[in-house]
Amino acid sequence: MLVVFYVSASAEFRRFEHPPKPDGSLSFLVIGDWGRRGTYNQSEVAVQMGSMGEKLSIDFVVSTGDNFYENGLRGIHDPAFLYSFTDIYTAKSLQKQWYAVLGNHDYRGNTKAQLSTILRRTDRRWLCLRSYIVNTGTAEIFFVDTTPFVDKYFEKTKHHKYDWRGVLPREKYLTKLLKDLESALKLSVASWKIVIGHHTIRSIGHHGETRELVTRILPILEANDVDLYINGHDHCLQHISSNTSSMQFLTSGGGSKAWKGDYHDLNQEGLKFYYDGQGFMSLQLNPTNAKIVFHDIAGKVLHSTNLSKQRYSVVM
Ligand SMILES: *[C@@H]1O[C@H](CO)[C@@H](O)[C@H](O)[C@H]1NC(C)=O
Ligand SMILES: *[C@@H]1O[C@H](CO)[C@@H](O)[C@H](O)[C@H]1NC(C)=O
Ligand SMILES: *[C@@H]1O[C@H](CO)[C@@H](O)[C@H](O)[C@H]1NC(C)=O
């Protein structure tokens, strides 16, 4: 079930209301960097997601992007959509809404196809937009299009072409996105504020930190008490705590091909967990507690963390 609301014309981010369970709790899985027609253990990860999804009775699935390798979708009829998505995540528990963002590999294909409403008719679970908000009451989740922030994709190269339709002029697009993100975060009254993007902010993985996001997005997240920043891009599972706020940086990019052994600085300040194999993340939230768990392809719990929030009562 998906209810679409448009807020005022000044806010670009579309809002979707996704009610939590009757007791106010919510659970979902997060997967990133996955679409490889089942190869590189994508299918094994999918099977474990199915059984964890069942166990937690999940409400939806979040994708942190790089949904279709190597070059996104060619068009709305690209069979990769079926071979890498519909035919892979077949478990009953995964027949829920999927909320996805685009990764840099998706931008190498026909981005309009991946964002298209026609795709949503091909598989009703699919929802991918550039930047949008899913409000569950318990948590408000802000999906942010991070690829256009990264300078190197705009440099002329003979290796890759990117589909920037809808993004140019670039600086105008980025300025508006940041302004809309900031005002939406300021207005949020949810217990948990969660931001999802494809690119890393903090990471010890292959790509490491994304300088442009550290400079332009991180200050906005910290100033507005964001609890979790969740990304993919580095093909690993990872948890890093902030040294300047209570924000946690979580990477779920283990949906298929993993970068075994490809990391730097295991002594990074705040590093709680790093796994360079495949897997996914689950979140269980209620208004005062969040439980975050990383799972491998055998269903083993690799790392788990509990966050809690004081409930303040207003004294008049
Ligand atoms: C699949 O996962 C197993 C267990 O983690 C690992 O040993 C193997 O290398 C993986 N295969 C690929 C192709 O990544
Ligand atoms: C916090 O960590 C980041 C990333 O490791 C580092 O660049 C920064 O200097 C640290 N800031 C403080 C105040 O320690
Ligand atoms: C998290 O809380 C649950 C109970 O809600 C507890 O069973 C579990 O041990 C806790 N995990 C950690 C890592 O603190």
From TrEMBL:
- Describe cofactor binding as the record notes it: Binds 2 iron ions per subunit.
Q: Does Nucleotide-binding appear among the keywords?
A: no
Q: What is a single molecular function from GO for this protein?
A: acid phosphatase activity
Chain positions recorded as Fe cation 1 binding sites: 33, 66, 69, 235
What Gene3D superfamilies would the database entry show? 3.60.21.10
Cellular localisation: Secreted
Per UniProt, the enzyme's principal EC class comes to: hydrolase
Annotated Fe cation 2 binding sites: 66, 104, 198, 233
Name the family: Belongs to the metallophosphoesterase superfamily. Purple acid phosphatase family.
Q: Which PANTHER family does the record match to this protein?
A: PURPLE ACID PHOSPHATASE 3, TARTRATE-RESISTANT ACID PHOSPHATASE TYPE 5
State the name under which the record lists this protein: Purple acid phosphatase
